[in-house]
């Protein structure tokens, strides 16, 4: 008899409970995962500027596949961050924009992204120092 693996969903918090991201089953973890994912951050950041059609957004967010962009937009729409406006015209026209909640989330993650850009040289310096120290410790242990 085959046993199916069921993906465990985070519990919805009770109305009297405060969400706590440090708790393993807190639903805020999933929201955080969506907005801070590689493509989530970049899509939210792009939509801060203006609304986009799918193909425009794909060009703006360099390197994202059609499939990943579609999944990211669907997830962000489900969470209430992105508004999908499908116009009944031929050919079909769909525009994506941020909701008020999405704008707030986008501003937060965009600040983090800009901080990472500003501090990139320091991160590279730290990585190099770490790698050199590890290499020295490894070589020193071998020659002793």
Summarize the helices and strands and which ones pair or pack.
Elements lengths: L27 H9 L1 H12 L2 E2 H7 L5 H13 L3 E6 L5 E6 L1 H19 L1 H24 L1
Antiparallel strand pairs: 1-3, 2-3
Helix pairs in contact: 2-5
Essential attributes:
single chain, 144 residues, mainly alpha, 6 helices, elongated
Major sheet attributes:
3 strands, antiparallel
Question: In terms of structural class, how would the helical and strand content be classed?
Answer: mainly alpha
Global Rg: 21 Å
Q: How much helicity do the residues have?
A: 55-70%
Tell how many strands the DSSP assignment holds.
Answer: 3
Q: Any idea what the shape is? A: elongated
The averaged pLDDT comes out at 88
As residue ranges, the low-confidence spans are none
First-to-last CA distance: 56 Å
Strand order of the largest sheet: 1-3-2
Number of helices, counting only DSSP H or I runs of 4 residues or more? 6
Strand content: 5-15%
What is the element string, with H for helices and E for strands? HHEHHEEHH
Task: Report on the architecture of this protein.
- The chain is mainly alpha-helical and 144 residues long.
- Helices cover 58% and strands 10% of the residues.
- The N and C termini lie far apart (56 Å).
- The mean pLDDT is 88.
What's the gist of this structure?
This protein is mainly alpha-helical. Helix content is 58%, strand content 10%. α2 packs across α5 (100-118).
